Amino acid sequence: MKKNNRGWRFLYKSHRYAGLFSAVILIMLAVTGIALNHTEDLKLDSQMIQSDTILDWYGVSSPTDFKSFSAGQHWLTIANQQIYFDHSLLLKQQNRLLGAVETNEFVAAAFSNSLMMLTLEGELIEQSPFEAIVRIGIGSQQQVVIQTETELMASDDGLLSWHPYHNKQIKWSTPRQPPKSIAKSIKHSFRTSVLPMERVLLDIHSGRFFGYAGVVLVDISGILLILLALSGCSIWLKHKFRALKLRK
Question: pLDDT tens digit string along 43-59?
Fold first, then answer.
């Protein structure tokens, strides 16, 4: 009988300490689970992590390879397939930027398969297909000049129409080193636009945020929950049978 009592005491203690151990993990899972269940409402997929500590933890680094083009007083820069107008992100996932020029009314940027027209404030007006572009420049009369693989073409009506261009006075857009302030701003902007809050919460929820040890810890917590349920049922049944005996 004493051995039986010792077994029950061990079960009580194990149930208690297993519950305490699992409580922290359960709270973490509950909080992250509730948040993830409302991803769209909380906009977790569009909120980006700004913390340098978390970004360092994930190994998110700033781009080191810039390709910038001066367009009058402005700069267009491509960094890891993201296009920046001065300090601000303009577009993501673009083809190779070949150059940019500024006219009195707009900025034109050339890609390998398209032309982009921007306001002087950096707002996108339109982007249209244009095949076989080699480079872009500005003509003697502020025309936008495009060199394709076969000819020179110019437009002086806001990129609406094109005609052959024979004047050799062309200022071609060439890569240049951007000002240090712009390079620093782009590095920070890029680094803080990579990691969404949803990804971090998913990793915390699964334990992957803490590496392999975190995954094992969550797995152990899941096993303990099963044991807690079984031990809880055993304890409840014990008290239930005891109460029935006392009634008899």
Answer: 998 899 999 899 999 98
